[in-house]
Amino acid sequence: MSARRAELAAALAAVRRRVTDAAAAAGRAPDDVGLVVVTKFFPASDVRDLADLGVRDVGENRHQEAEAKAAECADLDLRWHFIGGLQSNKAAAVAAYADVVESLDRAKLVGPLARGRAARLDRGEAEGPLDCLVQVSLDAPGAEHRAGCPPDRLAELCERVADDEHLRLAGLMAVAPLGEEPAAAFDRLASCAARVRADHPGATTLSAGMSGDLEEAVAAGATHVRVGSAVLGARPRVQ
Ligand SMILES: *Cc1c(COP(=O)(O)O)cnc(C)c1O
After folding, report:
1. Rounded to the nearest 10 degrees, how much is the dihedral formed by the CA atoms of 234, 181, 135, 27?
2. Ligand 1 atom closest to Cα of residue 235
3. What is the full per-residue pLDDT of the chain (239 aa) written as tens digits?
4. How far is the CA of 175 from the centre of ligand 1 (A)?
5. Which ligand 1 atom is the nearest neighbour of the CA of 38?
6. CATH code for 3-231?
7. Any residues with CB less than 8 A from the CB of 168 and at least 6 apart, and which?
8. What's the rounded Cα separation, in Å, for the pair 27 and 25?
9. How far is the centre of ligand 1, averaged over its atoms, from the C-alpha of 227 (Å)?
10. What atom of ligand 1 comes closest to residue 210's alpha carbon?
11. Cα of 235 to ligand 1 centre, how many Å?
12. DSSP per-residue codes, 156-196
């Protein structure tokens, strides 16, 4: 085993342990909480090592980097999660390789994502609709706008996604805002998720929690966490 693979194996084991401990603490089954390893800024060779170590779900946040890595790793049995800010003129291209789009935060993205999925279906490269998570903003109202749909517009956006035959509303995603206890923010997310599930019973996925706050997210009901630096190490460049 290469030194890098051994390092990844140890870090991955530690993160898996944190997730199962958090699930146990919340009275949840260990396999109730999935792990998406966020490989942004790290090379395809790391993705390969992670796949060998049993990782099935990987996350990327920049289109060009994600597209290149997905192509390099096309022989691996991986689900690619797109978790970054989406430009509407790139959304169709993202849908050409992404298996899950977690950062759908405005209605303008619905058309291009659906077209991208339809083209992929035509090429015989996928089956069924594209799994989408609507990204919710957990910022205080009036905070400088970061990514995400404001909670008061969530119902309308979810409806748009659910109505499109090429998209499947799988659930919600969020990032805890800076400068607030993540637990409080994730509690608001859990309320949003409950409201969405009342209208869309199939929207059961809740993507929340990163290296620094996965325990709080699991306590609030996250069904998968997105962990980067705790598995791969500090990112080579600042984002
Ligand atoms: C980078 C990123 C993560 C992972 O962050 P870490 O703190 O490195 O675990 C999770 N979610 C999103 C949306 C990200 O951009």
Report:
1. 90
2. 8
3. 899 999 999 999 999 999 999 999 999 999 999 999 999 999 999 999 999 999 999 999 999 999 999 999 999 999 999 999 999 999 999 999 999 999 999 999 999 999 999 999 999 999 999 999 999 999 977 777 678 999 999 999 999 999 999 999 999 999 999 889 999 999 999 999 999 999 999 999 999 999 999 999 999 999 999 999 999 999 876 54
4. 8
5. 4
6. 3.20.20.10
7. 128, 129, 130, 131, 132, 202
8. 5
9. 6
10. 9
11. 10
12. HHHHHHHH-TTEEEEEEE--PPTTS-HHHHHHHHHHHHHHH
Ligand 1 atom closest to residue 40's alpha carbon, by position in its atom list? 1
Other CB atoms within 10 A of residue 113 CB: 25
Count the neighbouring beta carbons within 10 Å of the beta carbon of residue 123.
Answer: 9
Phi/psi class of residue 167: alpha, beta or left (left: φ > 0; alpha: ψ in -120 to 50)? beta
Distance from Cα 165 to the centre of ligand 1, integer Å: 30
State if residue 37 touches ligand 1 by the CB under 6 angstroms criterion. Answer: no
Measure the CA–CA gap between 80 and 56, rounded to whole angstroms: 9
Ligand 1 site, residue 61, Cβ cutoff 6 A = yes
Domain extent listing, the chain: 3-231
Q: Are 219 and 186 in contact (CB under 8 A)?
A: yes
